[in-house]
Target: CocE/NonD family hydrolase
Amino acid sequence: MTHLAPVIHHSHSLLPVRPPETVSMRTRDGVRLDADLYRPDAAGTWPVLLLRVPCGRRTALTSHYAHPRWYAARGYVVVVQDMRGCGTSDGRFRPFEAEREDGADAVAWAASLPGSSGSVAMYGCGYAGMAQWLAMAEAPAALRAVTPAFAGWDVFSDWAYEGGAFRLADAMGWALRTAADAARRVEDGTGHRLLTDAARSLPIDDEIPSRPQALRDYARYTHYDDWLTNPVPGPSWAALSPKAMQDAMPTDVSVLQIGGWYDPRLAGMLDAHERFGASQRAPVRLVVGPWGAEGPAAAPGQAPTLDTLQLAWFDRVLKGEGGDRGGPVRLHDVETGRWHDLSTLPAAEAVLHLASDGLANRQGGRLELEMPDLEALDVVVHDPRMPVPTVGGHAVPDAAGRPDRAAVDRRPDVATYTSLPLDESLMLAGRVALDVWVEADAPSFDVSAVLSVLRPDGQVLPLTHGHARVEPGDPTRPLTIGMRAACATLAPGSALRLSLAGSCFPAYPVNPGTGAEPGETRRVDALPITLLIHSGPDRPSRLRLPAGSTV
Model:
């Protein structure tokens, strides 16, 4: 089912709003958390919307959402709370460590505030989205709905690593910003200035690109070293991650997730939706739009705002008001701009085979419906002095999106495989994956994969990315790379293109080829790596597209 608009807009009779009040609570271990309270200046009680933020409650995440007064005027009590160690709240901020207990305590407290009806919903994006999952794992009785946006599901695989590779640009940028906030709290003006400047222009040209001087000098203010030196999943990651706590989450809490095609944490959100869609008794929905971590404000055209999406959901699940339409999954088509409603997210089951004459990095290889008759070998040399750059996609938040990557695809260190032009339109909607038979002349190497649409005018616009770091001894026969999901209707004359390379910098560190950890690797340590990409009957590399796709 397809719609031009993703929501029904309801009119509201606006209520007067009281001036904000500063209110405080104590957590179960005695830490004071401060909040601003906004509520209608009218008789009656109202559902509570709780926004818990690490970046200062006075901003109220207005980079993504309407000011809390907007919600209060539409019949909600809104509470914006500084998390532990943030804003004016007491304590020390350590990412994700206290959000389960603090969040549950805050839900119970918010339900008792003046004007509250006793029902609480949480909202917020990024870290504030993950905090909702963690609070939900404590099963607070008053919690009726969560609406995590651009949040993820697992700290290890959605925030710190992807395919075994450290999320360099994303993780470094966030660490620098949180470190700058920590320096500000203790009035370290020099540290605050240096860290803020580094966050604005990432110091990835440092002698140790993954552990630049600014983060070495001010390591006391940030979690960065803990993440950088812990490259495998395990108990320490599970202690922070909603995914590991899912069995404790109640089934009567409504869930609306809002994600973006260019959001670094989308893959985890899809996994979370599948989990809740299969088990939740309350309504569950996933909306994925043409957005990155910056949210709808960065999107062109008539994309909805987080506020219009959320308000319709809150009115439905908290007040029983308003109509509704569409399926549990609502996806924005990046080619046509239309919205599609699906009952589920299709799996990656349709197959295109990689085929080549051995010159995929010169004249290009092919994506074919039938298995090629002959074996082929494409050789790609990764030169660490000139790594293949990140172009669009999801992994560098400040540069996310769909820029033309035709020039990058012409590089000799990029192998491309292209389908024949389409005779009729083709809709892709669902998960994408790659199984590639690959080996290298180094103990460790990376494989970056990009699926794009090649338009008749020669533009090559990304649809989805995937990345994998192969450590010594890892299986590569084949190497499976999860490439996130996509939604696009390709016009006749367009084609699909798969691009493979040995780097994607600065989204991920340049692999030195030695097996050394990123935080220990100097620029001078990196060596050239030769990748051997196989295709054909004995080593069948293949691209897997959403079920029902036929090129």
Confidence is low (pLDDT under 50) at residues 3-9, 297-301. Residues 349-546 form a domain with the Jelly Rolls fold (CATH 2.60.120.260). The chain has twelve helices and 24 strands.
